[in-house]
Write a structure and sequence with these properties.
This protein has 8 helices and 11 strands. A hairpin with a 5-residue loop joins strand 4 and strand 5. Strands 1-8-3-6 form a 4-stranded antiparallel beta sheet. It has a 4-stranded antiparallel beta sheet with strand order 2-7-4-5. It is α+β, with helices and mostly antiparallel strands. The relative contact order is 0.12.
């Protein structure tokens, strides 16, 4: 793991409200590092408080059970960020983060992050909305784990992955195609269960597998199937 070449914060969604000069100035105060696929970026036991901005690449937020089973929470794409909880409250990291492919990260000191956000209300609003989304998603997942069977938890996860790409005709693409083990990790079931559920959905014409994406043919019908069980 070596030092990355000089980079900018231009691709970071949170920083787009700033002008190019401000982004350049702030970028110079960050520590830039490059990580290979599978390399750990943050460990849950870390005492660091930096906020991490993904200049390029893709990462996964995970935890591990005592038995070593991986529990996956989220994948974050280029332009996103993570680690803000520790920067805000000074508490230990809540999860570990791994690079899914070659990734360049800008590590921003917590004091700088707090200063930048406090001086720019538009950035603060983005952070607040992100935190609200995290709470809502966590609440939804807790409810799913306690009220839904494994089959319906897989359905609910497919809906979550598809929702950002929902089209007017009710279809939605999930790209890249989700890996069975990843879905299983997120909804606390087995790869075999995920494979069986996806095969059933394909047989019923609700999903179609393509070379580079999974197409949900009828998002609303799948949503009704989950809501009927949730009650």
């Amino acid at each position: 793991m070596g030092e990355a070449q000089p980079n900018t914060l231009d691709s970071i969604e949170l920083m787009r409200a700033l002008n190019s000069d401000e982004r350049a100035r702030i970028g110079k105060e960050c520590v830039w590092r490059r990580f290979g696929a599978g390399e750990q970026i943050l460990d849950r036991r870390d005492d660091s408080r930096d906020v991490c901005f993904i200049a390029s690449g893709r990462v996964r937020v995970v935890n591990f059970s005592i038995a070593g089973r991986e529990v996956s929470f989220d994948d974050i794409e280029e332009g996103g960020f993570f680690g803000e909880l520790a920067a805000i409250d000074g508490e230990p990291r809540s999860a570990s983060v791994l690079a899914l492919k070659q990734t360049v990260i800008a590590f921003m000191p917590p004091s700088l992050f707090q200063q930048v956000v406090s001086e720019n209300p538009e950035l603060a609003s983005v952070v607040f909305r992100r935190l609200a989304k995290m709470v809502r998603l966590a609440t939804e997942r807790i409810m799913d784990l306690t009220t839904l069977g494994a089959n319906n938890r897989v359905h609910a996860e497919i809906l979550r992955l598809a929702k950002p790409n929902l089209q007017e005709d009710g279809s939605a693409k999930v790209r890249p195609i989700p890996v069975h083990s990843d879905i299983a990790s997120r909804v606390s079931t087995t790869r075999e269960t995920v494979a069986r559920v996806l095969s059933e959905l394909a047989r019923d014409g609700l999903v179609t597998r393509h070379s580079d994406h999974l197409l949900v043919e009828d998002y609303h019908q799948l949503e009704e199937m989950v809501e009927d069980v949730r009650g």
